[in-house]
C-alpha cells in the first residue's frame, strides 16, 4: 500500500505549500531516512523565486540539501535502522578524472547544480530517499541542528584551505552572511592575527559581534574604505575572501588586499557578467582563487570539526521552524531588512 508523508512543496514562483505526497521507494544502493533537520540555504532562494528546480521541470518540487536524519530503511547498504546520518548533497560520479584525483567538487557531472534538492527532490519533508554513498554516520557529539549546518561550514572550510592561510596572516572577509562569518571563525582558529569583516549595513552583524571572532568591522559603503582598510591592516590584508558574488564586493577585496596578496572568490552570481578592473590584479600580482563546495575528504573533516568542538555552528542559527513555516522562512530570507542569519527546519 502506498504510504504518504508531509512535504513542503515548491509549486509555483515564491510559493511553498505543505502537502501530502507519496513516500519515495528505496531503490538499489539507496537508504531512507526520517529527516531530523534541514538547513535553509541562500542558494535555495533562486529556485523559490522561479518556482522550479534546476533540472527538468516536473511540476511540484521539494528543495532542501543541508540535512540529517535517522535511517528507517537501510536497503542494501552498510547502515542499520536507527543510525543517525548526514547527507552530502554533491551528486558526484566517482569515475571521472576530477573525482579520481580527490576533487569531487569539480566532478565533470556536477556543473554547479547537480546536487540533491537542486536537480532531484530534497529533504524539506518527513522522509528522504537517496544514495547510501552520499550518507555519513554522525558522531553523537554532533547535534541534529549542527548537522544541518555542515553544508555552509564545509564551504567555509574548503575556502580557508584553498587560501593557503598561514599563522599571523591578516584576513579580510567581505560578506556578512553565515559563510563569511564561519570563514572568520575558522581563520581565527587557523592562526590569523587580524580578522576583519566588511559589511554593507548592520542587519546581520549583531550575532557576529556577540560571537566575537572579528577584530575589525568596516563599512563597505564608506567612500574612503580603501584607505581605511589599508591603514587598519598596516598596508593591506594578506588574504581577502569574497563571499557575496557581486562586483562591489570583489572591488572591496581588491581595496583591502596587499600587493602580492590572495583573493578567494566564494560568492557566485546569478548574473554571470561581473565587472572587474583587471589591472588592479595584474599590476599588483594578486592571486585570484575560485572556491566551490568542498572535496569528499573535506566533507568528512567538517563533521570532525564540529565533533571535536573546533567550531559550534549552532551559534549561527537565528530560527528553528517546522515545515509549515518554510514559506515564511523564504520571505524573510528574501527581505532586504530582516536580520535572519540561518534558519533550520525540523520536519
Ligand atoms: Zn546550501
Ligand atoms: Zn566525477
TrEMBL record:
Entries under InterPro entries matching the protein: ADH-like_C, ADH-like_N, ER, GroES-like_sf, NAD(P)-bd_dom_sf, Zn_alcohol_dh
Keywords on record: Metal-binding, Oxidoreductase, Zinc
Cross-referenced Pfam families: ADH_N, ADH_zinc_N
Residue ranges constituting the Enoyl reductase (ER) domain according to the UniProt record: 8-345
Superkingdom in the source lineage: Bacteria
Protein name: Alcohol dehydrogenase catalytic domain-containing protein
Organism, scientific name: Oxalobacter aliiformigenes
Amino acid at each position: 500500500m502506498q504510504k504518504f508523508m508531509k512535504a513542503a512543496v515548491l509549486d509555483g514562483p515564491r510559493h511553498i505549500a505543505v502537502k501530502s505526497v507519496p513516500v519515495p521507494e528505496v531503490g538499489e544502493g539507496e537508504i531512507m531516512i526520517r529527516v531530523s533537520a534541514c538547513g535553509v540555504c541562500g542558494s535555495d532562494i533562486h529556485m523559490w523565486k522561479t518556482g522550479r528546480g534546476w533540472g527538468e521541470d516536473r511540476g511540484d518540487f521539494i528543495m532542501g540539501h543541508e540535512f540529517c536524519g535517522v535511517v528507517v530503511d537501510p536497503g542494501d547498504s552498510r547502515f542499520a535502522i536507527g543510525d543517525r546520518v548526514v547527507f552530502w548533497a554533491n551528486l558526484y560520479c566517482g569515475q571521472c578524472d576530477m573525482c579520481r584525483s580527490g576533487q569531487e567538487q569539480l566532478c565533470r557531472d556536477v556543473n554547479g547544480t547537480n546536487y540533491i534538492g537542486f536537480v532531484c527532490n530534497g529533504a524539506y519533508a518527513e522522509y528522504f530517499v537517496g544514495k547510501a554513498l552520499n550518507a555519513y554516520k554522525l558522531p553523537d557529539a554532533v547535534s541534529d541542528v549542527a548537522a544541518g549546518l555542515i553544508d555552509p561550514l564545509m564551504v567555509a572550510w574548503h575556502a580557508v584551505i584553498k587560501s593557503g592561510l598561514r599563522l599571523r596572516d591578516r584576513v579580510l572577509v567581505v560578506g556578512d552572511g553565515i559563510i563569511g562569518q564561519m570563514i572568520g571563525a575558522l581563520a581565527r582558529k587557523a592562526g590569523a592575527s587580524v580578522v576583519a569583516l566588511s559589511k554593507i549595513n548592520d542587519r546581520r552583524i549583531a550575532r557576529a559581534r556577540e560571537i566575537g571572532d572579528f577584530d575589525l568591522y568596516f563599512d563597505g559603503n564608506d567612500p574612503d574604505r580603501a584607505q581605511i582598510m589599508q591603514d587598519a591592516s598596516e598596508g593591506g590584508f594578506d588574504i581577502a575572501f569574497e563571499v557575496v558574488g557581486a562586483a562591489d564586493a570583489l572591488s572591496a577585496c581588491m581595496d583591502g588586499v596587499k600587493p602580492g596578496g590572495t583573493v578567494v572568490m566564494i560568492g557566485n552570481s546569478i548574473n554571470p557578467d561581473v565587472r572587474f578592473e583587471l589591472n588592479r590584479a595584474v599590476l599588483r600580482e594578486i592571486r585570484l582563487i575560485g572556491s566551490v563546495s568542498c572535496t569528499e575528504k573535506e566533507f568528512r573533516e567538517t563533521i570532525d570539526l564540529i565533533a571535536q568542538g573546533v567550531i559550534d555552528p549552532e551559534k549561527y542559527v537565528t530560527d528553528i521552524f517546522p515545515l509549515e513555516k518554510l514559506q515564511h522562512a523564504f520571505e524573510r530570507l528574501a527581505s532586504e531588512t530582516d536580520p535572519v542569519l540561518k534558519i533550520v527546519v525540523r520536519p
